[in-house]
Amino acid sequence: MKLFAGLDVGQDQTAIAVVDVSGEPLFSTTTLTSPNAIAVALKPYRRSLEKVGHETGMFTPYLHRELSRRRFPMICLDARKTRAALAAQRNKTDQNDARDIAIALARGFRGVAYVKSEEAHLIRMLLTYRRALMRKARDLEMTIRSSVKVFGITAKRKGRRSLIFTMPRRRSNSAVKRLNAIMERAREALLAEATILDREVQALAKADPVCARLMTAPGVGPITALTFKAAVDDPARFPQSRLVGAHFGLTPKRRQSGQTDIGGRVSRLGDAWVRATLFEAASSILTRTNKASVLRDWALRLKERKGHGKAVVACARKLAVVLHRMWVEEKNFDPRGGLK
Fold first, then answer.
1. How far apart are CA 163 and CA 142, in angstroms?
2. Domain presence at residue 61
3. Biggest CA-to-CA distance, the chain
4. Is residue 112 part of a domain?
5. Nearest alpha-carbon partner for 112 in 72, 77, 151, 154
């Protein structure tokens, strides 16, 4: 008999429910959020399990990988698509959520989400840590520059690290100097660690053949290439390259009902960080890059008709499509000159 299991994963505990094809509950329990504990709870039903489902969440990649290695048929469900089904129940508890997830699998629920590889999450961690250090260093710089103004002092950046202070003619306050020195040391320490991560980003992008190929596209550097690679992870999960733009929220929304047909701005669904990175790369194509390319010429023509903002968004969407095609089709890549 085919059985289906649902997991409602929490930080400390996970609710487990097992149902048959008709949705009849057979087993229900709560255990620790650990692959070993979950595997022990499902062990009596392992041979009959057709699918084991769980929603997207912070622990999803870890549990999905570890339970898949133990040969459980894991399925990850998109939490946005299962939200309506779980919210319809009268009493919303962890056990009821786990049971409803199992029932949804038994009835052929199709809202399946992709679980990225460990390599993609490692790249994402590297980029996240680098961005966090840069943001904290910038926050400290803005704090220093705004705080010293009440004492008549102005601070200007010299290069990437140094801050030059312009003191008033009268004798400066020693307490101000001491406090500024503390903040500057903290800022320099953050920038020093960020520089180390910068070198790792550069080395990783240069050594990775996919990123090296993507960086031949106009406006694409190491950060954009690594961000795109980590977000897509497996290009085969997009049967058509034009779906990549929609996946990252760069296509217009549309609401149609009867005679009503409303087209809106871009949906902004998906990964906001990837969307921002593609937008920045597209901006550099229009404003900084002087090298001629088919993509840049197309974006400049669109800019004349639609304006700069819409041209940048459209260029970002088309850049995502181009990067996906460069990844999946080697014939679209010329080692001597990048894009053909």
1. 11
2. yes
3. 88
4. no
5. 77
